[in-house]
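Batch job 17 of 40 flagged for manual review because the log was empty.
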Amino acid sequence: MRKRRGLYVAFIAVLVLFGGVAFMGTARGASDPADPPTPIEGTFSDLVQVKEDREAGTLDIVIGPVEVPASNEGYRTPIQVASLPGSGWVHGFSWFVSDASGNRLSDDLLHHVNLIDPDRRELFSPTARRVFAAGRETGPQTLPRFIGYPLSEGTRFIVVAMFSNPEPTPKEVFLTVRLQTSPLKKALNPLPMFPFHMDVMGPVGEKSFPLPPGKAVQSWEGSPAVDGRILGLGGHAHDYATLLKLEDVTTGKVLYSVKPEGSNGRVTGVPVAMPWKRGGIKIYKDHVYRVTVEYDNTTDQPTPHGGMGVVGGVVVSSQTWPVLDRNHPDYVTDLQNVVSAPFREGGHGHGGHASGSDAAPAPHQHH
């Protein structure tokens, strides 16, 4: 009874804080597209399937089969587009890699995966919205059922997936991104929350940076399009990362500061913060925010694309986001970069993160 009462109090607190009383009708998203979706040249749909299980409350986005070459650190599939079946709400996610029979395989086979909505904008830039991202260090995440990400009729995701295979033989794999969902209701619906994404290399262009031996720091600053309140935070970083941080430059307040998990330089996880439990973290459109990643490469070898740093999360806002501008130079360049990122057959690339490309996490994506 105490736990149920606590959740009820939290629900009322959220409604009071964010000015909501009930969310009726269709599940609309912040910055809904001003015009119908248009085809995206250079994308495919032959490797992606969408499977909905209404009884279980899941929506699976399955990528495969993908044959990952042997001894490969970064193999990116051709960019796929997944069309979702209808309206509803997303409350959490998980992912797993499997073989053709559905048997689970090592999480290390995934380098990263990103789901990007090309029809809605980001919070900190006019680029396509990064809805979800995960790497091998990203665990399952679940938000309270009274908070959800709205899926509208016609929602589509660009799917950027990259795999790793350290073994001496090729491996055929499938990647399943499982979204926890609930249907659209006629009456009371969840409080709409939206992902945001901040990359230390900025919203457009190169996403990785060279790591020399020793210490390295990279950061980027930006302002949100609307006032809001952060409910959850996570991030993505590569091996030898020692710190990932988000701070309000205007006030000097640190909002999120974590040391990636792992040992001997290998990153196995990035801690997640859930500030919704204490009312969230207020952010303001007239403030400047900085995302920073720090590295300590303890080897004597430089790594050309070894550095990366992303802080992602979810935010709620009672304000209206700017409508997506498909002609904005940043949007156009960013989308071209995502789609035209080279198909990697070897070496260390990042698809949506790689040289000449852009993509990324939430709350983590990365990705």
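Reviewer: the log was empty due to a logging misconfiguration, but the result itself is present. Residues 1-25, 344-367 have pLDDT under 50 and may be disordered. Unflagging and moving on to job 18.
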